[in-house]
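Late entry, written up from scratch paper. The run itself happened at the end of the previous shift, but nothing got recorded in the book at the time, so transcribing now.
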Amino acid sequence: MKDFLFGLTYPFRSLRFFFSHTVLIKYSIAPMLINLLIYGSVFIFSYSWLLNSLDKWLGIENTEVGFWLKFIHTLLLIIGFLLLLFICYLLFTILGNIITAPFNEEISQRVEEIVTSGGVVHKMGFWEDAYISIIGEVQKLLFYLTILLFIFCLNIIPVAGSLLATVIGVIFSCFYNALDFLDYPMTRKKMKFRDKLKITHKGRLVTYGFGLTSFLFMFLPVVNVFMKPILVAAGTSLYYEKYFNAPALQEQIPAN
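Output as recorded:
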């Protein structure tokens, strides 16, 4: 439980670290603006479409409606809003990660320089950096979509399927979000994807605590845009504090 709480609170404790280094703030401006444009555009247009569609479907455009029709409209609006948040989260995760990968990589590399005092920095040229970062994001995306499809298929099972899908979905979301932000230093070491999965899994409760907080921040509109660079910094810092220096995990890190 102690490890879970450590991971759960790590992003909050990383706030002070992030804002005490102006170089991290500087490199966060571009990805924040890009993510704000992506998420804001998707959310605004989708929410506007949802409102108009509900009004037309229920036939309440410019007319007086009764209590029950208003109740149904409100209920469907809440359900639609939650579904919209989830869809925006998926698009934000997919598009945002790929487009801003080089910027996030730069933030992570600066954090690595700070926490290791420049001792374990894996420098690459810009184009190699961008290429490896984007390839890493595509690998994570394919993994994410594959597991997501499996979880969706669980709903076919009568009664227990939806409950099982929900439980596995939450657990997987925690794992994936931890992997997402711990991935940057591992990508710079040119690790194979299966080795990244092994190291993230071996973090156990630290992984799931950190992943849960990361998932919640990524799910919240607007908050996700501003927290993402901070979580990139937190993931890199956590990797070196809890993973890279752990003797049990050293064997998982291939030599360059």
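Residues 250-256 have pLDDT under 50 and may be disordered.
(Scratch paper discarded after transcription.)
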